[in-house]
Amino acid sequence: MRAVLDQLRSSRFEGLLAEKEPMSRHCSLKVGGAAALLAVPEDMDGLLMLLGTLRDNDVPWLIIGGGTNVMFAGDEYGGCVVRLGEGFSSTVVRKNGEWEIGAACVTAKVLAAAVRKGFSGLQFAAGIPGTVGGAVRMNAGTHEGDFSGICSEVQIAEKDQVQWVGRENLEFSYRKLKLPSGSVITGIRVVLTPEDPRLVANEMERVQEKRNKTQPLGVPSAGCWFLNPEGDSAGRLIDAAGMKGERIGGAEVSDIHANFLVNRSEAKPEDFLALAACVKNAVYERFGVDLEEEVQVVGG
After folding, report:
1. Which of the four pLDDT bands, split at 50, 70 and 90, describes residue 264?
2. pLDDT higher than 80, residue 300
3. CATH code assigned to 89-212
4. Which of 52, 53, 88, 269 has the fewest CB atoms within 10 Å, i.e. is most exposed?
């Protein structure tokens, strides 16, 4: 990792470079080991420089958005964690209703801007945490809709090039956007519909209120831990298996929404791994369904 740092600094890389950075500071679950390196490029040139340097030195890497759907389970991730900086957080609104949104934009701030400017189409995302890039990468959504329904283009940085990929060439599926290995989402384009700001606000409040009533608030979590099996709900299965309120160490199955594993009290990554294993086992024994994690577990 020293060679990577030396090369980046000698090339005047602009952005944060932090060695042995605790990832608990950057993940909503508030647990996790350190990353050998955290790099935060502030512009496209810096991102391409970083990716090239990591590739040339055979250093593994991964990218996070708001850290709302990931847990670093080991004591240390030996590679580089990449997080896009402020240079990727701009939003441009054009007269035809097209919005060009940087991947580092906080989703909630984009929704607030849509209300202020009077544009409809993003209401389904009310209450979805994290950044726009992360939301698109996992095709985040609810029963109201998901990001595959609004993206017209996605900007992707790969190796030494940046390109816009049209919707017809994007492979969205349930909680996933298939991307080439080693690529990074840097922005999206969506077309929204002009609407009375009061109507947009009312609809967003309705969606937000529903989420507030059905999901645990005020306690660290990584959102839904498991993917919904086809035709069913992971939360329903976990609840019916009698796992609501189950606790190992500081990790607990939420008694509000059974598909949320929450950090009740100074939990450790191993608490969540053990609890998730217990939940999967209980559901499999009761229903014969093998739940699949939605949360990205790194290491462990």
Report:
1. very high
2. no
3. 3.30.465.10
4. 52
